[in-house]
Amino acid sequence: MPADRNMIGDKIEVENIMSPGRVHRVDRAKYEAMRMALLSVLPKSPPGLTVAQAKAALLPVLPDALFPGGDKAGWWLKAAQLDLEAKGIIARENTKPLRLHIAQ
């Protein structure tokens, strides 16, 4: 059994705050790049950034080798957002549009 059961081969298991108890396996390199980019742009306190603002801010820091021209960045942003929310690392404000920030 691998040392970390959440990392298997080139995949990593991610959670979804909207589906507690369920995990999905996704590409580890893309997930980790998106996770680092998202955490680097989100503020540490409310009100945070809208998802659109976060995407605009993180696109320039994503590795082009993994996300050429920002390809599929929206999907990976949502996957990282839901996983980080499920783990309590980021939080959402109950606003329209949704705003995200680092959890305190």
Structural write-up:
The protein is of the alpha+beta class and 104 residues long. The chain has one domain: Arc Repressor Mutant, subunit A. It is 35% helix and 21% strand. The strands form two sheets. A three-stranded antiparallel beta sheet has the order 1-2-3. Strands 4-6-5 form a three-stranded antiparallel beta sheet. Helix 1 crosses helix 2 and helix 1 crosses helix 3. The protein is globular. The termini are far apart. The N terminus is likely disordered.
Give me the CATH fold name: Arc Repressor Mutant, subunit A
Order of helices and strands: EEEHEHHEE
Fraction of residues in H or I helices: 25-40%
| C-alpha geometry | globular
Classification by helices and strands: alpha+beta
Number of domains: 1
Query: From the alpha-carbon coordinates, what is the Rg to the nearest angstrom?
Result: 14 Å
Please describe the biggest sheet, giving its number of strands, its sense, and whether it closes into a barrel: 3 strands, antiparallel
Under the CATH scheme, which architecture would be assigned?
Orthogonal Bundle
β-strand percent reads: 15-25%
Separate helix tally: 3
Low-confidence stretches: 1-5
Distance separating the two termini: 34 Å
Q: How many distinct beta strands?
A: 6
Average of pLDDT: 92
Question: Which strand order do you get reading across the main beta sheet?
Answer: 1-2-3
In CATH, what is the class?
Mainly Alpha
What's the helix and strand layout?
Blueprint: E1 7-8, E2 11-15, E3 23-27, H1 28-41, E4 49-50, H2 51-58, H3 73-86, E5 90-93, E6 99-102
Antiparallel strand pairs: 1-2, 2-3, 4-6, 5-6
